Predict the 3D structure of the following.
Amino acid sequence: MRNTSPSHPRSTDHVVLIGGGSSGALTAVRLAERGFRVTVLEKARIGNGSSSRSAAGIRAQFSVEETVIGMQYAKWWYTQFHEALATPVERRQPVIKQNGYLFLYEDPEQAAPAWKPARRKEAARVWHMAQTLAAMQRRLAEPVEILIPQQVHARWPHLEAGRLIGATWGPTDGFLYPQMIYTEGFRRAQELGVTIMQDTEVTGATLRAGRIVALETTHGPIEADWFVNVTNAWAARVSRRLGGMPLAVAPLKRYLYFLKPHRPVMSREEWQHLPMTIYGVGSGRGAHSRPEGDLLLCAWGHETEPEHT
């Protein structure tokens, strides 16, 4: 996993990463381990972008086999995170919490009144697709279960199962702690000689023969051999700013709300082990929640244009 003395020949190439979040941190570590000279540019402060604003779910319950396999690897890798980044023992805190992912599916007959047959058909379709995908995921050794409503209520008594037709349950899915990822990632990156420039916005690029040779920033031009856009939700916007190719990246804005119960609604152990729960799948559905310490994080996706500033 960890390669503190890379066997790869050291490179004189200079790589500039645009974006100081989790992706930038881990990419910087991997490049530095392989001998590249690395500089990270962050418009504001480390973790200021999507990394610190995310519900941070991690799951393998996807519809594409390659994605399922990739997420299985990701879950395994995050269980090895501190070993991979040589985190000092006294600094080691949880990075991944595998509370599971629980997708709830509505009974088509109760998903909408009879005069809305399209919604009922959609509910039946998504449940059929969920069962098909669960079979594919199990074939790839992902331990996904299909639950009937009575099983859902037996395992999570706080959930009213009367409107459900079933659920899919991925016990090894869960969520991450992004602050630990980018904090320890950049700690390790700096140990390996990576330069981190915060409060440095990329405003443009200098191109020569169709290739970027320098970035224009609020701290002046920065030349390098390679430039990597790791801004995730902002990648398409950054690419346009650099004169690069159009990127098919369309971020989905999610609103996060944090609820604090006035009194305990279950034991602390039960609360801390609540899964990421998705309350219905399909149009007009998709609200989800998970524990965040003593709070309940509630979220909802919303189709909207990203900010342009």
Q: What stands out?
A: DSSP finds nine helices and 17 strands in the chain. Residues 1-7 have pLDDT under 50 and may be disordered. Residues 110 and 304 are 29 Å apart (CA to CA).
